[in-house]
Amino acid sequence: MKIYLLKDIEQVGIAGEIIQVRDGFARNFIFPRKLGVQVTVANAPFFNGKAKSVEERKAVIASKTSMLAEKIKGLTLKIKHKVHDDGKLYAAVSAGEIVDLLAAEEVSVAKNQIVFDKSIKELGSYEITIKLSNKLQPKLVLKVMAE
Asked: If we measure between CA atoms, which residue out of 35, 45, 44 comes closest to residue 12?
């Protein structure tokens, strides 16, 4: 079944896009929540015209995202934390702290876009992934130093 999305649905599509979904998913999830409408032969020209503007918007978003990825790739962030005598941190470095450090560098990301390989609980240098999209996942260097 072809659906025109009225709102963004994570891992499905963005608002204004025409997607192909299974009938049950449309009837049980999309229609009751008013997230989309069915594209029929009668209304197809109307929704196809709207979908073209979405493709242009996607291209703009992709270019902005790639510029942001290039900016993030070259970054080295430094953070100071209180440390025990043995070199371990009192508290692990959180995603919120990294978001704040990136905001100081004029890079805006959400907490859920920050991906840790493992929790950071010691001094040292770590590589952190920022998930901008499924394809764009630049890495930055975070240096944890003693306060």
From this structure: 35
Tell me the helix, strand and coil percentages in the chain, rounded to 5.
Answer: 35, 25, 40
Structure pTM?
A: 0.64
Domains of the chain by start residue, with CATH: 2-64 (3.40.5.10), 74-146 (3.10.430.100)
Q: What amino acid is encoded at 69 in this protein?
A: A
Partners of 129 in the β-ladder: 115, 139
Backbone torsions φ then ψ of 5, nearest 5 degrees: -80, 130
3-state secondary structure of 122: strand
What tens digit of pLDDT does each residue of 98-143 get? 999 999 988 888 999 999 888 899 999 999 999 988 788 899 999 9
Q: In the chain, which residue ranges form alpha helices assigned H by DSSP? A: 23-25, 44-73, 95-104
- Tell me how far apart the alpha carbons of residues 82 and 147 are, in angstroms, rounded to a whole number: 5
